[in-house]
Amino acid sequence: MKSNPNGGLVYSTEAGRMCPGCRQPIAQCRCAQPVAPPTDGVVRVFLETKGRGGKGVTVVRGLGLADPELTAIAKKLKAACGVGGTAKDGVVELQGDHRDRVLALLPGLGFRNVKKAGG
At a CB cut-off of 8 Å and minimum separation 6, what does 73 contact? Predict the structure, then answer.
């Protein structure tokens, strides 16, 4: 068994690598649990063009979901709109202007307080 000079167990012959935060085996680590970003309960849908060479991107913020659930919602929205996109940092981005379609789809996915934001 190796020990970290700062006091935490880093490796055990029984369990392998250990998490320095919760001191559990990496497979049972409680520190790496997905955490949903904080939200005010309002899902905002808007068009963003900054930093994209003038091309519009539909941005959905305020979903309040952890990464696995956010990725699943993004996949459903991309398929419904027939476009590409991504889900990262608590935000879903869809290529192009699909605000109206997303506003219609989100209540069916369980989001009741959905608003169109921006101009």
Answer: 63, 65, 87, 92, 109
Domain range summary for the chain, segments of one domain joined by +: 1-33, 43-116
Can you tell me the mean pLDDT for 18-32?
74
- 110 CB-near residues (< 8 Å, 6+ apart): none
pLDDT tens by residue, 68-105: 889 999 999 999 999 999 998 889 999 999 999 999 99
Superfamily the domain 43-116 falls into? SUI1-like domain (3.30.780.10)
Residue 3 pLDDT = 45
Locus of tokens 């605000």: 99
CA distance 59 to 77: 11
One-character DSSP codes across 66-98: -HHHHHHHHHHHHHHHT--EEEETTEEEEEB--
- Grouping H, G, I as helix, E, B as strand and the rest as coil, residue 9 is strand
Is 29 strand, coil or helix?
A: coil
